[in-house]
Each structure stands twice: as structure tokens, then as C-alpha cells.
Design brief:
TIM Barrel, alpha/beta, single chain, 351 residues, eight-stranded parallel β-barrel
């Protein structure tokens, strides 16, 4: 209720400024040890039916924070306190970079969506490593790794390998981001030849850490099948589906024409169909569904399509601190309605 009252004021600020203010607030929460217990009691939903065993670990619930929200691992423990079952930090690059010029993050409030062209801005791997080393998030933390914006194919492989190697001891899983639409087109990152080189290097760098690939939402079944063939060859554990899209469905916001990646509600159906297609192509892959998750119902659709876990970013921006609690409580109601004993029973029933 408080966030609902404050949101109109926050939305008067530029989107990136408001995000910075939110991160600063979460840093304060993370440092306030006596307060954290009260926050956990209010926002966490503790129920064994929500637990998910995947990627070699146990997630307390399937609702996580997508990469991009906590790029530099500043607030993973605070996000866990708010009831999220896991946090994916990054995309982490081998050195700090500024990203694209501001403004580069836009709310499409009429569409419950956002457009970003941040361009992989961040503090770089060394600072992220120091933060992860001194932080007990209390929930699994995934690490999304990438390259600097001016790297060509060979350097991109070396850079992703370096980041993964530096952070593997702190990562429940590693994701390589080959589908960001907001970086220079130095080469085709998702091309099979490059993926073979990249995944071969990463498999050597993190042999005991689950490895996933982040896929885009604009690939058809044939392209996804080719991707799955490459993933199978390198024994990749899963796919995060999906990244943002550069396409524009019918939108009502004046910011709809901004260049960058579109996220939020308009992406939900396309992202869910990508999850379903991947589940049908290879039921051994662990799928993390992201794109338009902002309610128990939208999360449940991705779980039923084949995702073992779901993530959100834009839905968190619009829903506020109680988002994870609301979704997890709603998932319990949906599981009970449909006669499932736990969330894992619902995974893939519509695939």
C-alpha cells in the first residue's frame, strides 16, 4: 500500500534516477541487521511446496530477480529479504564501462513495460567479486557474464571466460549473455561458430558450476533448435528465456519509439512461447522463464510451459517491494486449485 502511494512520485523522476534511489534504499536495508529480520518476516513466504531443486541447488521459491536490476551485486541480500528465491547479478564485464549515454531507461507505464538501452554499464568484475565475497545473500545468486562493448569475437571469449573464472566460487550458476540488443554490433554473438568457441571456453573455466545461456525472444523454432544442438554438444545445463526484444507490438506509451530492448507485459506471451518451444525441443534443459512476469498467473504460465524458475525486473518496478510475496502466495493458491502437491509438479504440464 505504501509503495502504491509513493509510486506516482517516484515515476516523476527519470527512470534511472528512481532506480538508483531504490538501490540506495536497499543498500540501507541490507546494512541494517536488526531491521532485516522484520523485513523477512513480512515479505518472505516460507512453504515447502514452493521449493525447487534445480541446477544442483535448492531454491526456496521459484521467483527470482532478473539480471539488470542488481548489475553490480550491491543488494542481493536485501532482495532475498524481500522474498525472492534467487537473484541473478550482472551482466558483469571484465572491467568497468559507462554504457550508453543517458537517458537510456524509459518507463512505458500505459503498457506496464520498459525500454532500456543501458549498454552493459557496470563496475567490472573485480568490484563485483569483492561485494559477493563479503555478502551472504541467504538465497542462491546467479552470475550473468558478458564482454566489454568493443570486444571482437576472440576477445569476447577470453573476457567471458575471465569473468566466469573470477566469480565461479560465488555463483550458484553462470549465465552467458549472448542476446543483449543494446551493445555495438561487432559480430553476431549467437552465431553457432562463436557459441561453440564461447561455450567450450566457459565449460573449461567453470566445470563444476551449472552453465546457462540467455536467449533472445525473437528466434523462431528453427533457430532455437539450432541453439539447442549447440547447447547439447557442450552439455550446457539450461537457458534463460528470454532477453528483451527490439520489436514493437502495438503500444500506448509516448516512449514506445525509443530504441532499445522492450521488457514487461508486452513480452509475456512471446517469452512464454519461447519457453514452451525450448521445453519441447529438449526436456533435459533447465529453463528460467523471464519476460512479462508480474503476477502469480503470468509466473504460473511460464512454469506450466516448462520453466523450473522465473525471473522479473519490470514487474518488480511496477509492483514494488511486496511483488515476490504476492506472486508466491498466488502460486500456492493456483497449485491448490489445480491439485498439485508442489510447484515442481506443475512444471511443463502444458509443454
Amino acid at each position: 500500500m505504501l509503495y502504491r502511494a509513493l509510486r506516482p512520485l517516484l515515476f516523476r523522476l527519470p527512470a534511472e534516477t528512481a532506480h538508483g534511489l531504490g538501490t540506495k534504499t536497499l543498500r540501507g536495508l541490507q546494512a541494517a541487521t536488526p531491521l532485516r529480520g522484520l523485513v523477512r518476516d513480512r515479505f518472505r513466504v516460507e512453504d515447502d511446496r514452493l521449493r525447487v531443486a534445480a541446477l544442483g541447488t535448492t531454491f526456496p521459491n521459484p521467483v527470482g530477480v532478473a539480471a539488470g536490476f542488481d548489475k553490480d551485486a550491491e543488494v542481493p541480500a536485501a532482495l532475498g529479504d524481500l522474498g525472492f528465491g534467487f537473484v541473478e547479478v550482472g551482466t558483469v564485464t571484465p572491467r568497468s564501462q559507462d554504457g550508453n549515454p543517458r537517458p537510456r531507461l524509459f518507463r512505458l507505464a500505459e503498457d506496464r513495460a520498459m525500454v532500456n538501452r543501458l549498454g552493459l554499464n557496470g563496475d567490472g568484475v573485480d568490484r563485483v567479486k569483492r561485494r559477493l565475497a563479503r555478502t551472504d545473500a541467504g538465497v542462491p545468486v546467479g552470475v550473468n557474464v558478458g564482454k566489454t562493448n568493443d570486444a571482437g569475437p576472440e576477445r569476447a571469449v577470453r573476457e567471458a571466460r575471465r569473468v566466469a573464472d573470477r566469480l565461479r566460487e560465488h555463483a550458484a550458476y553462470v549465465v552467458v549473455n549472448v542476446s543483449c540488443p543494446n551493445v555495438p554490433d561487432e559480430f553476431e554473438e549467437s552465431a553457432p561458430a562463436h557459441l561453440h568457441d564461447l561455450l567450450g571456453a566457459l565449460s573449461e573455466a567453470v566445470p563444476e558450476t551449472p552453465l546457462l545461456v540467455k536467449a533472445g525472444p525473437d528466434q523462431g523454432r528453427e533457430a532455437l533448435a539450432a541453439l539447442v544442438d549447440v547447447l547439447d554438444e557442450h552439455a550446457v545445463d539450461g537457458v534463460v528465456a528470454t532477453n528483451t526484444t527490439t520489436e514493437r507490438p502495438a503500444l500506448g506509451s509516448p516512449h514506445a519509439a525509443e530504441t532499445g530492448g522492450l521488457s514487461g507485459a508486452p513480452l509475456e506471451q512471446r517469452a512464454t512461447e519461447t519457453v514452451r518451444t525450448l521445453a519441447r525441443l529438449d526436456d533435459d534443459l533447465t529453463l528460467v522463464g523471464v519476460g512479462g512476469v508480474d503476477s502469480a498467473e503470468s509466473a504460473y504460465r511460464k512454469l506450466r510451459a516448462g520453466a523450473s524458475l522465473v525471473q522479473l525486473y519490470t514487474g518488480f518496478v511496477y509492483g514494488g517491494p511486496a511483488t515476490a510475496r504476492r506472486i508466491n502466495r498466488g502460486l500456492l493458491d493456483l497449485l491448490e486449485r489445480d491439485g498439485f502437491d508442489d510447484v515442481e509438479e506443475a512444471v511443463g504440464v502444458d509443454a
